[in-house]
Amino acid sequence: PQPVLFLGAELDTITAPARQRAAASRFPRARYAELIGATHYCLHDRAELVAALVADFVADPGRLPRPYPGVRWD
Residue 15 and which of 7, 33, 36, 57 are 20 to 30 A apart at CA? Predict the structure, then answer.
């Protein structure tokens, strides 16, 4: 199975974080990161953070995620 990174936003009213979390649980090598205080538009207003999360994951998907301010890992 391929590793998968799910990103959710705590205050997302378009795509519920609980649904993202549930989807992530269906993939054996998935990680779920939730951006605290973020909305559905976090890809735009937190672009640098999202890019760092994706870059870390792509560099080594098997490594335990490092802590980031404003990110909760499930």
Answer: 57
CA distance 71 to 13: 18
pLDDT digits (tens, 9 = 90+) for 14-42: 999 999 999 999 999 999 999 999 999 99
Cα-Cα end-to-end distance for the chain? 19
Contacts of 60 (CB under 8 A, 6+ apart): none
Instruction: Give me the phi and psi of 51, to 5 degrees please.
Output: -60, -40
Give me Rg for the CA atoms of the chain.
12
Model pTM score: 0.90
Instruction: Quote the tokens at residue 8.
Output: 């959710």
Specify whether the CB–CB gap between 40 and 65 falls below 8 A. no
